[in-house]
Amino acid sequence: MTLGILTIAGLTLHEAARRRILTAAFVCGAAFLALYATGAHFMARDFARHETSLIERHMFMTFLTLAGLYAVNFLTVMTAVLLPVDTLSGEIASGVMQTLVSKPIRRAEIVLGKWLAHVVLIAAYLTLMAGGVLTIAQVIGSGIPPHVTIGIPLMLLEGTVLVTLSIAGGTRLSTVTNGVFVFGLYGLAFIGSWVEQIGTLAGNDTARYVGTIASLIMPTEAMWQLAAHHMQPAIMRDLAATPFSPASVPSPAMVVWAAAYAAVALLVAVLSFRKRGL
Amino acid sequence: MTEFVIETRGLRKEFGSKTAVAGLSLSVGRGEVFGFLGPNGAGKTTSLKMLLGLVEPTAGAGTVLGAPIGDRTARAKVGFLPEHFRFHDWLSGRELLHFHGRLYGMKATEIRTRAEELLARVDLQDAAHRPLREYSKGMLQRAGLAQALMNHPALVFLDEPTSGLDPIGRLLVRDIIRELRAQGTSVFLNSHLLGEVEATCDRVVFVKQGVAIHELDLLGAPQTIAVELELGETGSETLAALERLGRGLEHARGVVRMQVDTEEVLPELARLVVERGVKLYRMSAKRKSLEQWFFEVMGEDQRPG
Hints:
The complex is a heterodimer of chains A (278) and B (305). Chain A is 81% helix and 0% strand. Chain A contains twelve helices and no strands. The radius of gyration of chain A is 20 Å and the shape is globular. Chain B is an alpha/beta fold. Chain B has two domains: 4-217, Rossmann fold (3-Layer(aba) Sandwich); 225-287, 2-Layer Sandwich (Alpha-Beta Plaits). Chain B contains ten helices and 14 strands. In chain B, the strands form three sheets. Chain B has a six-stranded mixed β-sheet, with helices on both faces. The A-B interface holds A 3-4, 7, 11, 15, 18-19, 94-96, 98-106, 275, 277-278 and B 49, 52-56, 72-73, 75-76, 78, 80, 82, 84-88, 90-91, 99-100, 102-105, 144, 147, 157.
């Protein structure tokens, strides 16, 4: 079983490198980091010129770092959906899958191999991008936000949920339908999360419940909210000083839910592909 | 007793309300080159996909290399060339074979040796380093044929193997099929090119609306030969004697048409006519082609698929 998974994972990683998908992702990522570093540098210089208090300066620079991580989170979400969106559906449509499946390999190994490779790719992408933002933060003097060792894995869990859904959808849906479906679910979670935040601030329980239900249907945005909550100083969280300070902090149980959600989606992908006519 | 590499009983596939294969029962012997014939939409590709485990049958059962249809261990000894072979076009021809060798669980040294052997056999050695996206249709088909043979298969499924090939490529495929037969490999050939089938297959089965309706042994069984004799004045006794050597005799305007089972009968026909003093002006014999068989078996109601 392991050999088959590793063979397919190897082919998928090889494909990402050969088709210049990784190059494109990293060139765009590098452009983003360069832009971010330039902006952060000039803002830091501006702060140094004006007489701002140390706390004020620290809060602003933390906000800037969180804004960078928010952009990284968004880019990771896009990559996590788009990278694997045609890995199964595209190969089914082109007939490549017929040649693969006729070999002595389990269909589950094909799904798991592709899933593993894409999770590795997303993890590498997130590590490099988030690492870049944190390095820039360190260099310009705003310091590393607290609990990044909790925040970054939460962002990776969010990416893993999306990769898994994208692969599961590809077992039955065409590439475009699959992309629309997964982005639709992500949009649902995004809007749901805002409804929950606004509902909490307005003291509207119904709006809060709607948001919670949306997070249960799709726990991705809750992972970012939780990550953002952990990655800012307690004072900023308490003051709700940035747009990244959730009014309603997702429960830690939501992490278990998201992990279970990804596991079930992966199981569904394996079972669905096992029965798929090719 | 014949050992079968494929045996099916009432294999059926429905897609919603549409029946693609109504109940396919057939058997293919070890070492046999088997032709699977039928018009477009007859269920040939669906049948082949069921045998390979790509599509799950709605009903019926069968075995491939003695294991139930779809069995993974049996697939280790099976090769498959799809009708329009496609694979990741960023791989080179050599990488393609190496990858498929790994999927078959072959050892690295074995993969290297076998890949070079096959690249030479399908005449792709010069292009082995180039990505598949730079291959012509014919080169791609030959690369596909090579990947189907990586594991020294006991059974090879070839779905329209000469599709996109020029006459030289077709000849190469024909030679490879003959080599496979000589090595004792069974070949399941699905092709529209009846000439190719006639030249390579030992036996064919005609499929219509998902059912095997006729079987034809192209090797051992009697071959129908259509004979035409242009004779002078002929009595009924001579005609009766001629009919005893064949069947389906028709006589009109001095021309006798009949069918015989073997070429050995032809000299006897000529001797019989001459011995009875009947003038023989012309005699022709023509073997019934597979194409003629096809139209006869399929009936007159066939339309282009």
